[in-house]
Amino acid sequence: MMFDHPDNNPVRKLTEDECWQLLERTQHGRLVGVVAGYPDIFPINIAADQRSIVFRTAPGTKLAEVAVNENVLIEADGILSDEAWSVVLRGTAALLQTSGEISEAERLDLQPWVPGPKEQFVRVTPTEVTGRHFAFGPYRDAELGEGSEGG
Amino acid sequence: MMFDHPDNNPVRKLTEDECWQLLERTQHGRLVGVVAGYPDIFPINIAADQRSIVFRTAPGTKLAEVAVNENVLIEADGILSDEAWSVVLRGTAALLQTSGEISEAERLDLQPWVPGPKEQFVRVTPTEVTGRHFAFGPYRDAELGEGSEGG
Superkingdom of this entry's organism (chains A, B) (predicted)? Predict the structure, then answer.
């Protein structure tokens, strides 16, 4: 188990530090935004950098439209056989503009899912970072009680 | 490669049938919804059933609040070393109400991420299913040209 569940609750809230520990070793996540009231989601490669998330996009794509948005989420999760985690970062996304910002981001070794010649970097500055760790197996059985189904 | 890219474009749109083929062998996805203008996202276990997606939730949870919503997304993706895919289903989510619907859903062998005693099933009926397949490696290098960075 990556995290203990001392109270035997199958769900454990992660601290902000624990969320960043997970984000720092995760290369893949999803960007969620709302455009004209409709949600949209894109898989992206992410890099955690100075308690923010950086990713690449290209002008004119749908991703770029969602990516410059005051209210976005970045989600990342991981699933193992007997445990899983999910981290959600709420924040504001902005294109990196200055050459200093951009050359810093270039050091992060990020690849876009959709490559293109005119790539840009986007940084999501969080207003809130939350996460949960899920313990499957014995906790689940205990919680569900006798009536539960296997699987 | 799961899918060919005959035109050497690193991104290939998937047909609806191809999207369902992927969803049918995927147990894990994410529910995205909008509540009061703000997006939210939850990891969920999913089952594809009769060209819709079924998952479990429990009353009173945030997931349940988002889950009964006329405008939700279900996203699933997979990443391998040299390829990746992402499928997004837009649709309407509704709680299963009748005992017939519920006993049918119970056969799907679904587990919730957050177990609880009063579980419910939600079915998302799609209005649109889209997906993309990403070929990394040679396609990516060709597309990015000489100026691209490795990684």
Answer: Bacteria
